[in-house]
Amino acid sequence: MNMEKGKGNSRHYTGKTWRNLWHRMFAILLTCIMTIGNVPQMEAVAAVTQPEAQANQKEIVYIQAADGKYLYASGDEDKAPVVIGDMDEENKSMYQWELLDQGDGSYWIQNFGTKAYFCIEGVSGIADPYIRLYKTVYEDWISSKWIITESAEGVVLASKWTTGHIYAKAKEGDNKVYHGYDSDTGYFKFTRENIAYTDPSLAGPEPMDANAPAAGVTVPKENSDMDSIGATMPYVRYDSDKATLGGGATMAVSEDFRKDKIASQASNQSYIELSVPGAYAEWTVNASEADVNGITMRFTLPDNEEGTGITGSLDVYVNDQKAKTVDLSSYYAWQYLTAEGSAHNHSSEYDSIKEIKDAGITDYSKCFAFDEVHFLLDQKLNTDDKIRIQKTNADDIVYGVDFLELEKVGDPIAKPENALSVADYKDGARNDLEAIQACIEAAQNQNKDVYIPAGTYEIDEIWKLNAHDMKISGSGIWYTNIKFTNPNRAGGGIEGQDTTRSIEFSDMYINSSLQSRYEENAAYKAFMGTFGGGSWIHDIWEEHFECGFWMADYGEPMAYSDNLKITASRIRNNLADGVNFCQGTCNATVYNCSVRNNGDDGLAVWNNDYLEAKDALNNVFAYNTIEFTWRAGAIAIYGGDNHKIYNNYIRDCFMASGIHLNTNFGGYKFNHTNEIRFANNIIITSGSSYDIWNDIFSSVDVIGNVKNIVFENTYIYDSQHDGVRIGDNVAGIKFKNLHIYGTGLDRTTAGGNAVSHRGAAIFNRGGSAKMDVAIEGLTLKNILNARLNVSASDGGKLVINDQKEEGNDGYTVPLGTNQNLYDAKSVGTLDRGNYDDNAAFKMPDVIVKDVKWSPVSPKDGDKVVFSVTIKNIGDDATPEGKITGVNFLVDEKQVAWSDTYTQAIQPGEEVSLTANNGPDGGADWIATAGEHEVCAWVNDNGRYKEANTANNQTNVTFTVSEKGSNSGSSAGSDNTVNLPTDNKQDTPSTLPADDKQDTPSTVPEYKVILNASEGVLQVGKSTKAFKAVVSKGDKIISWSSSDKKIATVSKDGKITAKKSGTVIITVKTAKGAEATITLRVQKDKVKTKAIEVTNVSKNKLKLKTGSKFVLKTTLTPISSPEKVKYTSSNKKVVTVNKNGKLTAQKAGQAKITITSGNKKKMITVSVK
Question: How do strand 570-572 and strand 594-596 relate by DSSP bridges?
Fold first, then answer.
């Protein structure tokens, strides 16, 4: 689920936010680091352990400061501040908090009213970081984890990330709650209470109506016969390795699954290249597959620089006679994925090489290399006929052909007797959608069905389907074409409404013009919204959408797609998920479908809890064939209960697991899981050691806080790296009859975020004491790693009983029901080579060799910049692409960090790093007179595993002299960093004596302060919303842009957006002060996301008759062009002008509504 990864809370939810979070987690996780302070040492609060609540009760706490005021949520919007004030009995839920134990000594603190969490993610560069409430947090985010301790003085809530604690800052007109080191206001009191509570997540599925379309669909039960595994489809595949090549055609092959090879994304990792005129691939029709006339061809064409694709053509010959010219385009293909997206205020997905280059990104993966085209021949192919695909034209395009699929296509399906035809509702006044809607309305009124005859129906908007108890069918997937022509965000797709129930929808091909996920906000699925009441969608061929099926409602009252069945369909070539049962979908099924080449999870259940949707229960994925998933997992389960996933055939994943379970995404997760069952699934050539986040995936991947999963009769073949990966807090995981044949086909020693190793059968990446995994019956063959099973740590419990090792002499890969797709593949004897898998794990071990600062002899008020020399004393390099960061703390408080070095550091190599950022937005520390201790802490956030983390910190004492003094010292009398002698470290070097730093002047420090440090602007628009305030005696001398192609800025601070991208706007003053704005330029209109009134507490204001008051309103983003409007509910009591100026007219009460775009905020004004 990449994470997928965006999860916006719009009605058209756009994919597992900013998912791929497991994936993108690491790009977002540590972009900001807060200060580490001197919190008193205290013992953990025993009372934090939550007592058993009564049935229908929940324990909450009230968090009260020393002055008696309470912490509460300031609003329901995402990232709303936590504030402090008097109790409001009418809004008590906003003052109630849940403490959610994370199993590692920390807690999430969740607001009961808003369901949002305490978090300090994204506070880099903010001098006064206040606590925000995030709607979604992730288990890898240390920024949302809090250590709760107590002493005689009270309870302290300290960040696990920084050790800084929460406090109420005494600041006029500011009631926010902050994170830092104010020890006088950092103690709180907990008051616990059990409140009546009905858990909405346990509402359960709706009953199935006996007359519902899906009620008559029978899904076979589990079958342990391996020949039964997979979907049954009516076509036969002719793969590239079975073709006769001629005219200069060549075979492209990837034997190591490298992500920069196009063949890694092909069937069996090979395809045919046609690069010169006359090059061809030819197949002979088998006797059992004669009488076919439908052809599907999987192909690849290069992209152009702008990402809009190129066009070309190939010719089809039958028995040496030209039968057809097939036009091809790479319009839909190619997505560019990178872990660097979040660093550029972008998702991990880009649509063109140009965007990637403009963002300065060099490490990215080219995905979605292959697309498909299908067409009918004017003749039928018979036994021994030869079908040839040939490049006849003289263009310079290198064409790639992966395979052909041949299919017998019958005549169009005739109009059913009880149906109205859309053709009868088409006239000059109606477009195609209006004709379809008119036909549906008439059919609903007449209790009839709807028939969409052969032809192409062009629709340029979302088809909002309002219908119930009706069949909507076409003339077949080769004849009825629904074409969504709008390429823009929310430009198409079929959206089931709350009233869409008991629908049978079938027999058509559905395509779109979508090219982009719009940074995971496309809102453009083939089927979305809800199809409730036991609806049945079958015999559909859909492709080229954001997702194939995204079943979820994001409005109130909430509707569900319970009892939905999706069968006998082709779900292909989408930018994200094939099918996602989200937002409480229950009793839904995907059966006998071809699911392939989707850019996130192929089939998924995500039990998100937006608007307190119920939990997901009893969903089924059975007898499907899932191929070519690029990113995430072919089948992914993110929580819920009693799902059954059985008899599925999974093959040829690219940077993806075959089966993928984790808890990276928001929702109920596995909180209510008693058992989720996987049975009789085959996974072939899946997993990865080359994903874009430099991590590995196994064929079966189970990490996070996943619990209570049963795998029975699981067959894993040809794993690219590991067969099964487990780790973290997984518990109650049971494998019965696990077969792993062939691992480490990539021949790498990748380890991702754990230890480097060659492909193993079971890889335990390390877990807590809670980890509990049992394997009953493990059969192994051709395991590359001589250890067979590899553990990165001794944490948790892994029990393997009845392990059978069948040697290394090869095996045959099973076909399941897919004899018509694949030929039997035999794997020969394994040669492990000379690599010593049994040697101790090679791991990096980075230390701080010496610490320096400039100026060498600092004086009070100087800006001091710290730097270090670090050394890798381990026996393996640090991971390429992973940040090697250094945290600088002075007197145990974080002052700066370095976080941009991503090159591999080889064993024995030394690297110098200098602070480049800090909690106040700068890389320097303002010196204060006296003796200080600086701590330099390398790899402080544990971005990668090391052999020893105890040697990551080095402490040095130095002295800052008074202004005007000629003295000042560095580390001790000899200016040498003293390090332990038993850590294999070289003798530390000394600081240079010839530092040419000028003697600091004694002039006052000058600053420039901006009203916002980041913003968004639409291409072609301008703004002067960013204001700068300078110190007395100073003045602004310049505004500048880091990239004038993206945005320009005038000398008076007017910013004009030129093209999409991210740019840094810098303002400088005559005295040398400067500040920056990170500005994201986008094509879409910028909309207001939040409204805040900074001079009104708790949205309530008291005025005296005749008095005036001006509301200080700010928008997020500050650059929003949507105008602020004010209205009064009772002008006789209070009037308000266009600038927010209130005039109290007479005693009474009125509500002032503030709007900007579709956002509203209400202030209650009482006049005496």
Answer: parallel
β-bridge partners, 1028: 1010
**Listing from the earlier edge strand, what are the strands of the sheet with 1159-1167?**
1100-1103, 1159-1167, 1148-1156, 1125-1128
Average pLDDT over residues 391-415: 97
Greater model confidence, 1119 or 639: 639
- CB atoms closer than 10 angstroms to residue 923: 20
Give residue 61's Cα distance to chain centre: 32
Question: Phi and psi at residue 425, in whole multiples of 5°?
Answer: -115, 5
Angle at 716 between CA 714 and CA 721, to 5 degrees: 140
Compute the distance between CA of residue 740 and CA of residue 753 in angstroms, rounded to an integer.
23
Single out the residue of 428, 437, 481 nearest to residue 463, CA to CA.
437
Q: What is the CA radius of gyration of the chain?
A: 31
Instruction: Express each pLDDT in 420-476 by its tens digit.
Output: 999 999 987 789 999 999 999 999 999 999 999 999 999 999 999 999 999 999 999
Q: Which amino acid is at 601?
A: D
pLDDT, tens digit, for every residue of 292-325?
999 999 999 999 999 999 999 999 999 999 999 9
- Going by C-alpha positions, the residue among 507, 566, 535, 542 that lies closest to residue 231 is 566
Tell me whether the omega of the peptide bond preceding residue 1117 falls within 30 degrees of 0, making it cis. yes
- Percent of the chain that is helix, strand, coil (3-state, to 5): 5, 40, 50
Contacts 24+ apart (CB under 8 A), 998-1005: 998/855, 999/855, 1000/855, 1000/858, 1000/859, 1000/861, 1000/862, 1000/863, 1002/861, 1002/963, 1002/964, 1003/1071, 1004/1031, 1004/1033, 1005/861, 1005/926, 1005/1031
User: Residue 831 contacts by C-beta under 8 Å, 6 or more apart in sequence?
Assistant: none
Neighbours of 271 (CB within 10 A): 28
Query: Measured between alpha carbons, how far is 178 from 186 in angstroms, rounded to an integer?
Result: 9
pLDDT at site 1060: 83
| DSSP assignments along 359-412, one per residue | TT----EEE---EEEEEEEEEEE-TT-EEEEE--S-----EEEEEEEEE---PP
Q: Which residues contact 1082 (CB under 8 A, 6 or more apart)?
A: 519, 1016, 1017, 1018, 1019, 1060
**Segment among 393-402, 881-890, 941-950, 959-968 with least mean pLDDT:** 959-968
Residue 894 CB-half CA count within 13 A = 28
How wide is the angle at C-alpha 1166 spanned by C-alphas 1165 and 1168, nearest 5°?
Answer: 145
CA angle 1009, 1014, 1018 (to 5 degrees): 130
Strand, coil or helix: 94: helix
Residue 764 DSSP SS3: strand
Q: In this predicted structure, what is the pLDDT of residue 48?
A: 33
The SS3 assignment for 89 reads helix
**Which residues, 6+ apart, have CB-to-CB distance to 509 below 8 Å?**
474, 477, 478, 480, 481, 482, 540, 541, 542
Share above pLDDT 70 across residues of the chain, in percent, rounded to a whole number: 89
Better pLDDT: 470 or 78? 470
The Cα–Cα gap between 731 and 734 comes to 9
Asked if the model's pLDDT at residue 13 lies above 50, the reply is: no
The H or E element spanning position 246 is: strand 244-246
Structure tokens at 979: 């390090």
The secondary element (H helix, E strand) that includes residue 442 is helix 432-446
Which amino acid, one-letter code, is at 1000?
P
Is the CB of residue 390 less than 8 Å from the CB of residue 315? yes
Cα 614 to Cα 1134: distance, rounded to the nearest angstrom: 43
pLDDT bin (cut points 50, 70, 90) of residue 1005 is low
Q: Which residues of 984-1005 are buried (b: 16+ CB within 10 A; e: fewer)?
A: ebeebeebeeeeeeeebeeeee
For the chain, what percent of residues have pLDDT higher than 90? 59
